[in-house]
Structure formats: structure tokens, C-alpha cells
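[stage:ingest] chain + small molecule (protoporphyrin IX containing FE)
[stage:ingest] validated
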Amino acid sequence: MVESNQRFTIEQLRSAGTSERAWVAIRGKVYDVTEFAARHPGGRDFLMATVGRDATAMFESLHDPKAIKVLAKRQIGTLIESDMPQYPTQTPFQVELRKNVADYFKRVGKHPRNAPWMIVPYAVSIGVYFTSYFIMFSPTICRELKLLPWIAALFHGWSSAMIGLYLLHDGCHASFTQTPLVWDIMRRISDLLTGLSSHLWIHEHVLGHHPFTNVVDFDPDVLTSNAGIIRYHESQAWLSLYSWQSYYIFPLYAQAAFKRQISEWYQLFVDRKFKNIPINPLPLKEYLWGGTSFLSFITLRLVLPYYFLKFNLLRIFLTYACCNNFWSLYLTFVFQASRVTDEVTWPKPDKGNQMQDWAKLQIESSMDFAHGSWFTTFMVGSLNYQAVHHLLPYVSQYYYPALAPIVQQTCAKYNVKYNLRGSLYEALALHIRRLAKFSTEPGAGE
Ligand code: HEM
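[stage:predict] done
[stage:export] C-alpha cells:
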């Protein structure tokens, strides 16, 4: 039995990231949520992924401030010192934003997670995925219409990107319906069809990227210890290959899907970490899902076209090269344009590990584009409203266009910079400009 006034080190907390002993730290208090996990309205899976660490930023960004009261009787002690940056609690800007957003949902009489129209893009993504697959590997079409299967391969890449932007993204943010089973089904569909792991992505995106966007050494995309092949921050050590990065980003970005399909299962099951983010011991269910997803992916990509439809291996490889390269370029450009530019902030915690206002950081580290264009919004899974998404990741993307003016007005009142460009191309040009800037050796004109 643990006494409620006990003081824990971060290592002790870390060792309690299992289903038998699940502890989590929020604002310096350590809670035992082993029993609570089964009753967590956000589902057991999300909670179990977050235990064994200081989950303050993630918890506060997703829950009403009152939710912490539910945990009061589960407090078992305090954390001696956190290894995570700390944001101030509930600044006036955050409080007003929260109120304005809540007022909007009260006015329209909707729940932020309920948006039945989202079924349309979900169905389009899956529909195009299977239609294009059929065209790519229909022996008759391939014989009669030589070009069509290659166009279908591009559409297959596009639909894989859309599955990521819609089913994976919304499932991992729990932003469609209030039912954990639905979120689970959405992200598992993505696993089965794309050969990527949504469990790993929860760690990368929900635990790593979102609470600490662009924060050096905490956002897994901005690590000084892992210089990477692209340099877009001054904290990354200089490598002479960066001189060429404005040119090689295209082939580099294009191979992202292939690289992930090979590395993700290793990171999840063998390495048990994503860059700087450790992964808690996995339940049997996760191994079974991993195996099923891998088999389904191999069946779709190899067994069916090679053994049953008798396509040769070179043709299969080239078809998937078309698909994967298009898919990777499409997603990478959207992601990079919406946050890797000079105009957004790249904050650092101070010496005491303290950060500025979390909401302000989310807005100022985002680059929005093409507000009002329904076509762009559809094509980029609403990431053209990046600031709103980062501020309210649990709200269905269906509501972003309506919420953006409310957020912008609140930003204007509190003098918070809201970055917005007219089109994706403008935002992309800013990204390319930043890469060009960091392709010069420090001290040689950067
Ligand atoms: C990605 C991770 C998480 C997701 C997606 C998530 C999601 C949710 C959702 C959807 C609710 C229902 C209320 C609402 O709609 O706001 C909820 C409630 C709650 N969650 Fe989480 N949660 C996560 C992590 C955590 C963590 C780390 C804790 C800390 C122990 C936690 C503790 C709670 C508590 C105490 C409630 C309120 C329960 C009640 O009112 O009875 N959640 N969560």
C-alpha cells in the first residue's frame, strides 16, 4: 500500500506504466489509475498509453479543468521533479478561448465530437482506396488500358493519405463521436490498410508533438540529439550534407511512407520507443493487432497481386513506388507547410523548465492557409486550420471553419499572433525558404 504523502522520482513513476500498476503525474501530483482505467470515459487504451509519465500538458489540453477532481481520491503522492516542461495553469487567454468555444457549441446545440457529415470523407477515402486497388490489379484493365492502372496507383496513394488525415487522425484524437470503440475501429482500419501503426502514432503525435509543438527536444520532430537528414532548426548540429537539402527534400520526403512501413513495427515491438518517447509494455491485444495489420498489408500488397493475380514482382514494386511516393509527398508537404516555417514560433523551456502559455504556443507555432476554401479543407483534412486543430484537438474537424473566426477574434484581443496565408502554395513557399536558410553553414551567413 502506497501512502498518499509519498514523494516519487521520475524513475519510480516510469516503472509504474503497466496495466498492473498504472500511475500518472499531473501538476506534480501522482495518481494511481489502475482501477480507473476501465472506467475512463476516453477508453482504456489512451489512458494506458499515457501512464508512467508526467501527462500534465496532454491531460489539460484534452479535458475540462474540473476533470482532475475525479482523480482526487486516487492521489498516492507527489512527484519530486518532472522531466517535462510545465505550462502555466489556465491563463486569462485560455479561459476566454475555452468559454468562447463552449458558447459556440451551446449556441448551435451540438457536441464538439458529434459531426455525422464526417462519414462522407471517411467513406470517400476507403471507397477510393478499394476502387483504385481494383483498377491497379485488374488483369483486364491492365491489358486493355495501359495508363489507367498507373493513374489508379496515384489515387491509391492519395486515398492512403486521406485515410491518414481522416480515419487515423480523428481516431487518435478521439474527435469523432464519444465512443472509444469507434475511435479504435477508425485507427485500426488505418493500420490494416496502410501498414502503419496507430499505436505508435499516438505516442508520436498525441503524446509528443501536440503538447509540445515545435518545443526543442520535446517535440519528437525537433531533437538536438538526433540531428536528422533535414536541418530546420538552429539547435541541430551542422552536417555538410545540409548544403543540398533544398534539392534532396523531394526524394527524401517521397520515401517517408516506405521508411515508416519498414521501421514502425520495429520501433513499437522491439525498440519500444518512438525517438524520445518510451512506449509502455504492450498488452497481448496490441501484438495480435500488429500481427493482423502486418498480414493484411502483406496480403493486399504482395500475396494477392503476386500469387493470385499473377503480376510480376517488378510491376508490383513500381505500382507501389508510384503510390507510396505520391502519398508521402502529399502528406509531408501539408504537414511541413502548416508548421515548419520562419513565421511560426520555435519555443524553448527556460532553465527551470517553465514554458509560456500553452494556448498561445499552439496558435503561434501554427501556420494556417486557405481559410474559406472547402476544396483545400477537404483535401488536407482541415489542417489548413492548424491553429484551431492544435488548440482543440478533441473537436471534430467539421467545426474548424466555424471556430476559426472565434479563435482569431480572441487572439486579436490578447495580442496573440495568428499566422494565416492565402493558399497552400504560399505556406509551402515559406517552408522551402526556411529549408534554404538552414542549408547554409552556421556562421557563413545564416
Ligand atoms: C490521449 C489521451 C486521452 C484521451 C483521448 C482522453 C479522453 C477523455 C474523454 C473523451 C473524456 C470524457 C470527457 C470529455 O469529453 O472531455 C475523458 C474524461 C476523463 N479523463 Fe481522459 N483522456 C485521455 C487521457 C487521460 C489521462 C492521462 C487521464 C489521467 C488520469 C485522464 C483522466 C480523465 C478523467 C479524470 C476524466 C473525467 C472522468 C469523469 O468525469 O468521470 N484522461 N477523457
